[in-house]
Amino acid sequence: MKILIAGGTGFIGQGLVQHWSSHTTHDVTLLSRHQKNTLHWDEFNQAPTTWLTQFDLVINLCGANIGQRRWSTRRKQTILTSRIQPTQTLATHLAKLGNQAPRWFNASAIGIYGIQLNHSHYLPPSLDEQTDLSHPPTCFLAKVGTQWEAATQPAIQAGVPTVLLRFGVVLAKHDGALPQIARPFWWGLGGRIGSGCQPFSWISLKDLCRAIDFLIEHPHVQGPINLVAPKCIRQIEFAHSLAHQLHRPSCFTLPNSIVQLLFGQMGEELLLSGQHVIPSRLLDLGFQFALPDIDSALRNIYSTKKT
């Protein structure tokens, strides 16, 4: 299969490239503005429909790192534009091809479901692909997800088979969020963030790649797909599991006030809040997670060199 990955030089894109280089014979081309030996956006834009017809699948992963720095007004606009603009571009050109277009997987995120209230001893009600989003939540993460997915509409309305990949927190040893989360644990300063009761919906990079393989093998699937493990946990449970795997203590607390002071709105939405999301459609389709619980996932991540 010939696959075009826009934004393929990022964390998830490189994970897919590495996965496919050792497991399949897919012919992968990266569409990028920043790296040599890829298809550059300027070249693509000279004849976009001609390029698109050369591929069986287009995967769009474009988007600035949402947790890289504090959300100033300018940074929030960058986060939105870096996702919406390439999505609109691809949607417009794919729509011109109609039923002759390749299949399209477009990134999204579980932030589209908004923020749920934390509970002291249990998770909030679960959210899945059937959750009503006709009245979108007002938090920034939901705004990003809503506008990101709305940008795919020209292609969907033209009949392009489109899958919306709603990512949870993707865990891998050397990239993504986990190295940043693990750093204070290595120093012996790990523990809960705020109350520790916030839901934490996650997926290992290994299972994410396997799930995308699974979706490729099921060409009839369209619409939103939650890419999260089936066992959501609270942040304090994640902290304890991580500490156990790293053989470090988990006795410190990062208070709400410090998180808000250091990170502002980003801290409130990414660190002190969360969503209890389940992968209903993947499970209904018969996908089996290799690493369904956080203990097995972290054990696998820290017992292998490249995961």
Q: Can you give a write-up of this model?
A:
- The chain has 307 residues and is α/β, with parallel strands linked by helices.
- It has one domain: NAD(P)-binding Rossmann-like Domain (Rossmann fold), CATH 3.40.50.720.
- 42% of the residues lie in helices and 17% in strands.
- The chain contains twelve helices and 13 strands.
- It has helices spanning 11-23, 41-46, 48-52, 73-97, 140-150, 153-157, 178-186, 205-216, 235-246, 256-271, 280-285, 294-303; strands spanning 2-6, 27-32, 39-40, 57-60, 103-109, 162-167, 169-171, 191-193, 199-200, 202-204, 223-227, 233-234, 252-254.
- A seven-stranded parallel beta sheet has the order 3-2-1-4-5-6-11, with helices on both faces. It has a two-stranded parallel sheet with strand order 7-10. A two-stranded parallel sheet has the order 8-13.
- The longest helix has 25 residues, at 73-97.
- It is globular, with a radius of gyration of 19 Å.
- The protein starts with a strand and ends with a helix.
- 41% of the residues are buried.
- The model has no long low-confidence stretch (mean pLDDT 95).
